[in-house]
Amino acid sequence: MTARIHVRPSRSLAVVVVAVATLAASALDARANCFTTPPKLPIAQPRLQAQAQRTVAAQATLQAADTSAAGRQIVGMWASEFVANTPQGPKLWDQGFELFHEDGTEVAIDNAVPPSLGNVCVGVWKSAGPRTIKLRHMAFNWNLDGTPAGTFLLLVTATVSADGKTYDGTFESDSFDVDGNVLPDWHAEGTVSAKRITVD
User: Fold this and answer.
1) How far is residue 96's CA from residue 105's CA, in Å, rounded to a whole number?
2) What's the rounded Cα separation, in Å, for the pair 27 and 73?
3) Which domains are delineated in the chain?
4) What is the DSSP letter of 135?
5) Which tens digit of pLDDT belongs to each residue from 23-63?
6) In the chain, at which residue ranges do the beta strands (DSSP E only) sit?
7) 148-171 per-position pLDDT tens digit
């Protein structure tokens, strides 16, 4: 679990005041530079090593809205948990909240890294069988000093339970440097499970 930091109300108010003043002072400069600063690294869709060996194309395909049974079952919000296979045995690897949309897109926030290092990921998904989906999920990786470190890729195959309240599956992930080279030490694979989050 991620440690929680509690801040006294008076300190919270001071932080808010300082943040608002800082934003106001930098608004004009930010507006001027927003679209003139070049990207810090090229955007590419890397391939997982296992995919390259199987000669599976790395490009994610755009898809129309999914109206299949799997599509209707996965749409919604989920609390997910990833357990990696390690030499020491299964180990909790990540936890997150995911949103699957009807149009075949997905977004997630997780607690593997702090927000300053990029804990928001986006993805695309499609049906792959009865109540089963495949997901391609991507994000940028960052160094501690805020410079780009490369990209992250996660592939998931998951099957929604018959009652639509849970899903289980497998995952494989890799990270890549700014030139698109795989970082072998960051490879992970294992299982994923999730519970649906509802309003009531």
Assistant:
1) 16
2) 43
3) 49-197 (2.40.128)
4) E
5) 344 444 443 444 444 555 555 555 554 444 433 333 333 33
6) 76-86, 89-100, 105-110, 120-129, 132-142, 148-160, 166-176, 188-197
7) 999 999 999 999 999 999 999 999
